[in-house]
Amino acid sequence: MNRVIRIGTRDSQLAVWQATWVQQLLIEKGVASELVYIKSEGDIDLVTPLYEIGVQGIFTKTLDAALLSKKIDIAVHSMKDVPTQLAKGIREAAVLKRASHKDLLVFKDAATPEAIGFVNGEWSMVNRDLLPIEHSPFTIATSSVRRKAQWLNRFPHHQFDNLRGNVNTRLRKLEESNWMGAIFAAAGLERIQLRPEKSVELDWMLPAPAQGAVMVVCREDEKNIFEACHQLNHAATAVCATAERQFLRVLMGGCATPISALAEISGTEMIFSGNVLSLDGQQKVEVIKSFSLTNTEQAGTEAANEIMENGGAAIIKAIRNHAG
């Protein structure tokens, strides 16, 4: 197409990296584009995106508003932040190949895994005396209720502090804190080459649905732009991430509900793992199911229904009552 596609992005390092990646992929397809930096809602003619669930879209609404206002032609999002029901007038154009889906524990510089006895994903108290005295030995930082609940399910006596901001801000806060460590998405740190050496993958922790994937969206009425961007679609990632988001949608999970899901393709099958936990991590309902790759359309729904039938409905109800 002859048109130069305007790619909307926030100005954080990770957001710019993702948008630049899309730009490079479009160049490879012979499509010209330019980056448009969206500072805040006040910088655009605001058209309020109409999402199905009120609080959803908190991380995407500024770009979605710019898209609906025709200030940009496409928006690039971390897929895990995108509401399961897109804003009216917006459609999915492509899902890019997934990076690592894993969560990562980043240790504060003064506390190495050996000093605190963290070996093979488990804790030991044998070396606790080696901790610097100013450290809060078992305080972990994260703002994610999903990460917190899964951690407390495994380590119920540990403590948590909230940690917000972009990747760079959170890394800086960790250095300035007395926390033992903080949890990050591996993909975010690795993409911008900020993964610290003193970090470990939490292989036992299920990710947020679609974690590690990037989504490109456009306006529903822009057929040419959709077709140009859809050339970038990675089918396997799209199938898996769609199943995970379907699981989240059926469970009606938002930022305040500890819901995790991971779909992976193995041979001719999709292996789907999902769980829901109580906020304190004491209750957990999980599911692992296999689906033929010729029959994945309802994979997320079937897995979610099994969760609900086996006790997940009661956990989710309790969380809603607590929030209310």
TrEMBL record:
Gene Ontology biological process: heme biosynthetic process
Sorted UniProt keywords: Porphyrin biosynthesis, Transferase
Cofactor: dipyrromethane
Assigned protein family: Belongs to the HMBS family.
Function, in words: Tetrapolymerization of the monopyrrole PBG into the hydroxymethylbilane pre-uroporphyrinogen in several discrete steps.
Reactions catalysed: 4 porphobilinogen + H2O = hydroxymethylbilane + 4 NH4(+)
This protein's pathway: Porphyrin-containing compound metabolism; protoporphyrin-IX biosynthesis; coproporphyrinogen-III from 5-aminolevulinate: step 2/4
EC number: 2.5.1.61
Record has Transferase as a keyword: yes
Name this polypeptide is given: Porphobilinogen deaminase
Single GO MF annotation: hydroxymethylbilane synthase activity
GO cellular component, one term: cytoplasm
Keyword Transferase: yes
Domain called Porphobilinogen deaminase C-terminal: residue spans: 239-308
CDD domains for the chain: PBP2_PBGD_2 (cd13647)
Subunit structure: Monomer.
